[in-house]
């Protein structure tokens, strides 16, 4: 429930931001930018949630460890949570049931969960921004709105060594949601128009 609410909050902020950019035809460049003395950043701030890659926290963090994971800095997550991620992967996916099993990236369970346990969304500054592009082979270099991230994650979890072309568990390797229900916009903020 917490994850769903956080995603709804993010979507709401993005939608409101989009409206704020589109509500005015005032382009006379009289923008007021607050000076540092006008900004108040005093107070105590605490991280409440962590979700760099979609579904990673939801699937691989055990219920009893959610709060701890959410407040752990990404630089410490791998050491603290990789073994939990691996145990949960091994219990979840028959594609990793045997010693030496790998996924479509050629990663065994320990290496794959080591990558996932540091829950950050990587970003390529000089290449393609995508969660996965089968045509170029780019992987985890960012995320475009149209990227089918859940299917990519399902392939890497359940697809086995040939998951991209011949998944071991095809019914578990695709969410069968192949496109957004409305086209994305070609201009900022790029989200689809409201229904």
Automatic annotation (TrEMBL):
Pfam families per UniProt: DUF4331
Source organism, top-level taxon: Bacteria
Tagged with keyword Signal: yes
Signal peptide coordinates: 1-22
Keyword annotations: Signal
Keyword Signal: yes
Name recorded for this polypeptide: DUF4331 domain-containing protein
Native source organism of the sequence: Bizionia arctica
